[in-house]
Amino acid sequence: MGFSFQCQARCRHTQARAGTFLTPHGLVETPKFMPVGTLATVKSVTIDQLEATGAQMVLANTFHLHLQPGEASVAGAGGLHRFMGWKKPMLTDSGGFQVFSLSELRKITEEGVTFRSPRDGRMIHLTPERSIQIQNELGADVIMAFDECPPYPAERSEVMAATERTYRWLERCINANQRPNEQALFGIVQGGVYLDLRVAAAESLAELNLPGYAIGGVSVGEPAELIHQIVRATAPVLPAEKPRYLMGVGTYREMAQAIAAGIDLFDCVIPTRWARHGTVMVQGERWNLKNAQYREDFSSLDASCPCYTCQNFSRAYLCHLVRTREILGYTLLSIHNITELIRFTQRIREAILGDRFVTEFGHWLDTPTE
Q1: What are the tens digits of pLDDT across the range 333-369?
Q2: Which of 93, 147, 264, 302 is catalytic?
Q3: Pick from 20, 22, 45, 177: most CB atoms within 10 A?
Q4: Residue 355 a catalytic site member
């Protein structure tokens, strides 16, 4: 079993589409939200609980797994799937975003990046070739090219240099990939908030005929409207016959607008991060369960939600767990939040298939006024 992407339906009024992405570990129905399992675990959630959320593809982080436990340990276990017990598709990012977030600890050259490990202080040299080698050993279905993620805000000259270097590094990643039939290498479009740089980068990457494409360097501090502009300008330039992945985005409005522009896949740490702070998403709203209003509220979190949390526990109980910092609270809120975002993309998929996308989700497509 290799890789293929099939478009099943397109929206008549937008660029939204529903499709299937076939990988060696199974099928991903798009559009789809993908939970983040940074260290080969989606925080506080077991594999059985994760499967029950409807998750079809999970992420892990090359940078963090390289630091601990090391790719050799993961490979010794038979790869990420066996290491963490997840049998469905997986994706590993290249470590680029994490490395470039260490602005005080790293040095960038054409060869790669040298940085001081935030875990033990040792110096590490990461190149495009080394990133791909690590990902080859980790064994995920989809691997990401090593890229340079410019900060926001940044001067045009700085962003242009990073975008051009990202392309050169992508060419090296392609040459370094030793498992092209087992692992699909996705290229990443950079370009900051400069739309002409984004379009040019997307056009250049499209010529390489990669298995898939990602839009990176968003959700790094820029306003939401700039994210929408970037996606609307970039996504249509990417090949229609390949999956398109928007990195680091996971809110209702941002996902809906990106889907309308033609995006298929999303990831974000929001579901579990918010859960650890007592925050849940309920039909697009953000609730803080620490608030006193929930202490005597014995209704379910969301009666329409099929998740384990909503079917078994009251808001009052969840409020109690959060206020007492019980670990179970983090688990139950994570289960719901992950389910919530996956259900949202699943409902959009069904609406696209039924030619109802704009009718049912048009209110998320309007630019907010606040």
Answers
A1: 999 999 999 999 999 999 999 999 999 999 999 754 3
A2: 93
A3: 45
A4: no
